Amino acid sequence: MHGVHEESPLVEAKALVKRFGDFDAVRGIDLEVRRGEAFGFLGPNGAGKSSTMRMIASVSPRSEGELRVLGMDPSVHGPHIRARLGVVPQQDNLDVELTVRQNLQVYARYFGLSRATARAKATELLDFAQLSDRADAEVEPLSGGMKRRLTIARSLVNDPELLLLDEPTTGLDPQARHLLWDRLFRLKAQGVTLIITTHYMDEAEQLCDRLVVMDGGRIVAEGSPAGLIARYCTREVLELRFAPGEPVPEVADLADRVEVLPDRILLYTAEGEAALEAAHGRGVRPLSSLVRRGTLEDVFLHLTGRTLVD
């Protein structure tokens, strides 16, 4: 029943701060993550994403502000919260002494599952992660994508309500990333709430219902991917590439906004082809041109003055 009693957020932060000595990694952020959504933290390395995730995971105490995870205060109910979370760290920390199946079974036993339940759970999760044929293999020779899927499978042994994924696909090839995205979509369809940090725009656009863009420990924008693009970008972007050192032609009046990058000029406009024709009409001759739709990458550039991929 909506309207009368909205379900309380799974994660709620107000003026949340994380300080290391005299360095503020997180500088007073507010956010709410709702049950059943995929929520993203987007930003460059050092933006405060991982520090925020560690506070939500209840493994790193907050310095200031309020935080509720699953309705509880991590500084009081840390163990209760951790028992109901799944956490996928940036670096796979699998046990290379154990087989693929044993990694799941041993971890399930930590959560107090009986031997028989742990066995059944491992079989179910191997199937989910598409690793059944590798069940009795060593972990070490697995590909990066397989290790990532195993790490995610392992984080699910306790049937978590909330799954925290810190840069889940960094270092994976496109095929492995798409397979991982598919697995995350399935979890979401089963009602698991996802919180994902990433510095890949396409990942955020694919996976997240809502996201915040973080920069320098602050939230600089919040919304759905489509909403953010609509607010901070234009429908299309015309990219003009010129030879290094070539003078920048006068094109500012041909678009809503122009961004000059070292290797190209971006013209933000509703009609990229029309802007390209107009540029050609006044004798502008780029090495190459491209009309594409506006993306989160453009939003980030607009908000922070730099691209995300350093």
Automatic annotation (TrEMBL):
InterPro entries: AAA+_ATPase, ABC_transporter-like_ATP-bd, ABC_transporter-like_CS, ABC_transporter_ATP-binding, P-loop_NTPase. This is ABC transporter ATP-binding protein. It is a peripheral membrane protein. Belongs to the ABC transporter superfamily. It is found in: Cell membrane. Residues 11-241 form the ABC transporter domain. Signal peptide: none annotated. PROSITE patterns: ABC_TRANSPORTER_1 (PS00211), ABC_TRANSPORTER_2 (PS50893). Coiled coil: none annotated. Keywords: Antibiotic resistance, ATP-binding, Nucleotide-binding, Transport.
